Amino acid sequence: MGGPHIVGVILFLVIGFIINSLFSYLLRKRIIDSGQIDKEALEVLLKPIGSTTESLKWGLLLLFGGLGLVILEFIPYEVHNSSLPYGIEAICLALGFLTYYLWMRK
Which ranges does the record mark as transmembrane (predicted)? Predict the structure, then answer.
C-alpha cells in the first residue's frame, strides 16, 4: 500500500469522523431544544460523546489488527492466490473483540 492510498484512507476517516460528530451534535441540540426532557436525560445528553470503554475497544482492535499484520510478515504464503492473509487478519480482529468483551464482562 503506497503513500497516496494511506492519505486517501486517512482523509476518508477524518471526513467520516467530522460528519459523525456534526450529526451527533445536531441531534443532541434538536432534542434539548424540544424542551421535552427531564433533568436526568439532560445530564446524559450533556455528557461527552466518547467514553473510555469506546477508546479501549478501538485500542484493542488496532492492537490485534496490527498484530495480525506483523504475523503476516513472518508467514510465507502465495501473494496472488491465497486467502491466508484475510483469515489471519479476521482471526486477530476477532480476538480483539473477544478480549474487549471479556474485559467488559468483569
Answer: 6-27, 58-77, 83-103
Residue 12 C-alpha cell reads as 476518508
Distance between CA 63 and CA 75 in Å, rounded?
19
pTM of the model: 0.57
DSSP state of 51: -
**Quick check: helix, strand or coil at residue 78?**
coil
pLDDT per residue of the chain (106 residues) written in tens, 0 to 9: 456 777 888 888 889 888 988 888 888 788 778 877 777 776 776 676 656 677 788 889 989 999 999 998 898 888 788 888 889 999 999 999 999 999 988 8
Q: List, in order, residues 6 or more apart from 75 with CB less than 8 Å away.
A: 84, 88
Q: List Cβ neighbours of 104 (8 Å cut-off, separation of 6 or more).
A: 53
Which residue type, as a one-letter code, is found at position 64?
F
Domain coordinates in residue numbering, the chain: 1-49, 50-106
In sign, the C-alpha dihedral spanning 30, 33, 34, 37 is positive
